[in-house]
Write the structure tokens for this entry.
Amino acid sequence: TQYLTKVTREMALEYEISPDMLVELIQCESSYNPNAIHDHNTGKGITGFHEDTFEKWNAKFFDGKKKQTDN
């Protein structure tokens, strides 16, 4: 979990999101468990985002596109 928290904080800074807020959100929603069940299975992933919330974040932070990674 220490490693995941470190990576979460780094990614939050990269996307100008509060690192504390993101870590607290993930800890609260899933404790980094990708199989956690959220809101009767309507939330997804370690954040428990609902699809419409994810789409809003995707549009805001990624302009609706997946981030390109360096190879």
Q: What stands out?
A: The chain is about 50% helix and 0% strand. The radius of gyration is 13 Å. The longest helix spans residues 2-14.
